[in-house]
Amino acid sequence: xxxxxxxxxxxxxxxxxxxxxxxxxxxxxxxxxxxxxxxxxxxxxxxxxxxxxxxxxxxxxxxxxxxxxxxxxxxxxxxxxxxxxxxxxxxxxxxxxxxxxxxxxxxxxxxxxxxxxxxxxxxxxxxxxxxxxxxxxxxxxxxxxxxxxxxxxxxxxxxxxxxxxxxxxxxxxxxxxxxxxxxxxxxxxxxxxxxxxxxxxxxxxxxxxxxxxxxxxxxxxxxxxxxxxxxxxxxxxxxxxxxxxxxxxxxxxxxxxxxxxxxxxxxxxxxxxxxxxxxxxxxxxxxxxxxxxxxxxxxxxxxxxxxxxxxxxxxxxxxxxxxxxxxxxxxxxxxxxxxxxxxxxxxxxxxxxxxxxxxxxxxxxxxxxxxxxxxxxxxxxxxxxxxxxxxxxxxxxxxxxxxxxxxxxxxxxxxxxxxxxxxxxxxxxxxxxxxxxxxxxxxxxxxxxxxxxxxxxxxxxxxxxxxxxxxxxxxxxxxxxxxxxxxxxxxxxxxxxxxxxxxxxxxxxxxxxxxxxxxxxxxxxxxxxxxxxxxxxxxxxxxxxxxxxxxxxxxxxxxxxxxxxxxxxxxxxxxxxxxxxxxxxxxxxxxxxxxxxxxxxxxxxxxxxxxxxxxxxxxxxxxxxxxxxxxxxxxxxxxxxxxxxxxxxxxxxxxxxxxxxxxxxxxxxxxxxxxxxxxxxxxxxxxxxxxxxxxxxxxxxxxxxxxxxxxxxxxxxxxxxxxxxxxxxxxxxxxxxxxxxxxxxxxxxxxxxxxxxxxxxxxxxxxxxxxxxxxxxxxxxxxxxxxxxxxxxxxxxxxxxxxxxxxxxxxxxxxxxxxxxxxxxxxxxxxxxxxxxxxxxxxxxxxxxxxxxxxxxxxxxxxxxxxxxxx
Length: 871
Ligand code: BMA
Prior knowledge:
Elements (H helix, E strand, L loop, with lengths): L1 E3 L4 E5 L17 E3 L5 H7 L11 H4 L8 E7 L8 E7 L2 E2 L1 E6 L2 E7 L5 E4 L8 E7 L2 H12 L20 E3 L2 E3 L4 E2 L3 E7 L1 E13 L2 E12 L9 E8 L11 E5 L5 E10 L16 E8 L5 E9 L4 E4 L10 E4 L2 E3 L1 E6 L11 H13 L4 E4 L8 H10 L2 E5 L13 H16 L5 E5 L4 H7 L3 H4 L6 H15 L5 E2 L19 E4 L1 H4 L13 E5 L7 H7 L10 H5 L6 H9 L9 H25 L6 E4 L22 H9 L3 E8 L2 E8 L5 E11 L4 E11 L3 E6 L2 H4 L7 E5 L6 E4 L12 E9 L2 E8 L3 E6 L9 E2 L4 E3 L4 E7 L15 E2 L1 H8 L29 H5 L6
Parallel strand pairs: 25-26, 25-32, 26-27, 27-28, 28-29, 30-31, 31-32
Antiparallel strand pairs: 1-14, 2-3, 2-4, 4-10, 5-9, 5-14, 6-13, 7-8, 7-10, 11-12, 15-16, 16-19, 17-18, 17-20, 20-21, 22-23, 23-24, 33-34, 34-37, 35-36, 35-38, 38-39, 40-41, 41-45, 42-44, 42-46, 43-45
Helix pairs in contact: 4-5, 6-9, 14-15
The chain binds beta-D-mannopyranose.
The site of beta-D-mannopyranose has 13 residues, from loops.
């Protein structure tokens, strides 16, 4: 029987010395606390601190991580009856501390990523006091680092010494708000005779026959417990299954000692397979494991929803190098992914509804994979459940990021226990496709000047190359493991070699222009991305600088990347004007972010299957910040989100340079062949056709084909006044011969008609001049308004209707406001060279490095150690 503990917890400072900065009102006060939660959210709810996410509050709250904290509650309980066992189970404690019950120390803890279970049989009375004392987490982290021997890491604090969410100590998109707290549920569990311990299903399918092999641990209350316990496994078709049902049961003998294991294998005939989004349905089956005593009475029960599919990683030497592909049900999946970071710096606030919103953002953009990045957490089951339900593959990093990790005690045992627990907990989920050893540590060891400071000390190689693969092979042999991201399957190669295995592209953004994405034909891009600010309403809710400027103090506090503000300016210079006016700067940098990533994605897709997928850095944000995210922390979709949806459309036409000419890349990620005849036209900027031909193509199912474009059409007479249009309607591809800065763009609307419709507004715009990348920044008309599409280019005379969802009444003129109705043409007209203002720049590209031989720009220790604020 599970018993939730009472809700009324109290938080106090101490025990131990408090830093001087602790406010008087907090010292020694009994602060009402919420479990699950953390000190920051409790202090905030009690009105004792300002919102850490607003303005520059973050730096004023640094004392919290230097303060020891205690959580305490009292509760009544029946003492254990004869033969009964009582356990206290913490699903998550953050992080270094100890647990006491009625003054007795139950144990010390030092790992946020584990569950802690204490036997409290015999310790409970009618009135009990449960106490969790947390050390000052930053002090404890530094002490642990000193004891293990400091090792290289990025950012300020030695997060690599403690098993705590790395990005909680600040990241290049995350605040430095070091928490403590009981961050996952805590329960009391009373039981007799026996209970199920870890239950681990291994699910496979061969033809239409599914196999479920369950390894169930059984804990018994007493060593001489009865031998004849039975574990029963049943599978039944669940929701979403289109094809019939299957049910069977089997018993396994749980014999031998007080900790026993039963292995039960069940064949399930005629199963329907689980597929990733865009490839089929997501049928799932209810798996029930019950523990029965000799009389058949149920002692315990465990239920999960599973799915039948196979998954493998394909890494094969070929004429280009070594491939890297995710294969589901024997089909190579073109991965359209995004990286996932913790959705809140205080992860206890992320509930199922929040996960559902963010995973909905992924699905609506057509993403079929999320990579849970190693500087975060193993997310709660809700996350993986929703991915199962919606067909989003999960690539799960083990929790190591951008640092060297000691392989000695006490870290070692924590790492191994945590990994076993994570593999066991997540194994039932069909969406989980790949286990990955770490984020960028193989690369870091190679390139980031770690070797000298490390000497002959450990750095994590033993985890990535031996321990973790051993754990996956033992507990979860149905899933592939790769040692790191990036990683070259050929050990003779650099981990970030584009021709071998997975790759992270970070020279673009950090040092060189985004057009350099075309220098790479990567086999799989597990990270690449480009920064842009959050939506206007999000930004102005969080930052109240007067005046607001790209480099005003609050803006810089919410820009964590090394030289981030300068990189934004440098990156935009070859493409678009960079306005002084803040609202225009905001639009320009958002547009640049969207274009840069779309540029990369279209290029990568044009190389499918040589490049089997791309995972954008990053889907979400954990607080309001200028970052690589597609969707900001208030849930507003940035222009980038719409650009990614376009670039990841099941059918995409894109014009790409190849071998000195231009080709039409026909990217067909559907099961039907795509055959068509489309016009290819070269137009003057006013829309007059200068040349036209028809091209025919046939792209088979799940194939990309390249169709050379006729020279007569594609060779411009005046590159500054012409463009190419291939195809028609939403699937058409556009090509310009020069950057916007060189185009005489101007904004001119023939009409902007706004109509109220039942749940919002329709805004029909008709262009009088070429309107490039038209966006309706709807949140600026009303903070709740959401638009259905963005970045639509209209030729002179063309119209488009945007649909805005918004319950509130908005004056219709708001949608005509130049603050809301935006385009690249507007930017160029206002701020481009022709406007007589400085803007643009030399389309020269940084230093042109390829990111392979030397350390990439962002990777130098000085870069990564800084807080991201320019000196
Ligand atoms: C990669 C990621 C993160 C980082 C991102 C942007 O290094 O793994 O560490 O936030 O790039 O710099």
